[in-house]
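Dear support,

I submitted the protein below through the web form. The confirmation email said the job was done, but the results page showed an empty box. After a refresh the structure appeared. I'm attaching both so you can tell me whether what I see now is the final result or a partial one.
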Amino acid sequence: QVQLVESGGGLVQPGGSLRLSCAASGRIFRINSMAWYRQAPGKERELVASISSDGRTRFADSVKGRFTISRDNAKNAVYLQMNSLKPEDTAVYYCNVDSWAVSGGLYNYWGQGTQVTVSS
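What the results page shows now:
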């Protein structure tokens, strides 16, 4: 079993910045892809950004040029740097990880979510 702990959410004014962190722990053999999703009230959960094991990144069109994603393999951690935040970025942000188990097999895990609110 793998646990994901997120941090860094909060209230920020439009145009501000936040950095989300997610650390994985537990029975990890090797982490494959890592990603951030978000879900706003009344909307479906959507992919914000992802990063592969070899560092390839992908972003939702709505955040390109404003958000960056990075990972620290030694710490089994993933980060989301969010700049030029807009009210429409308000959502609960979830960390998502694909991890190879010691016993074999690739499993998907979700964090508990962290609230990001962009408001003046």
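Response: this is the final, complete result; the empty box was a page-load delay. The chain has a mean pLDDT of 96.
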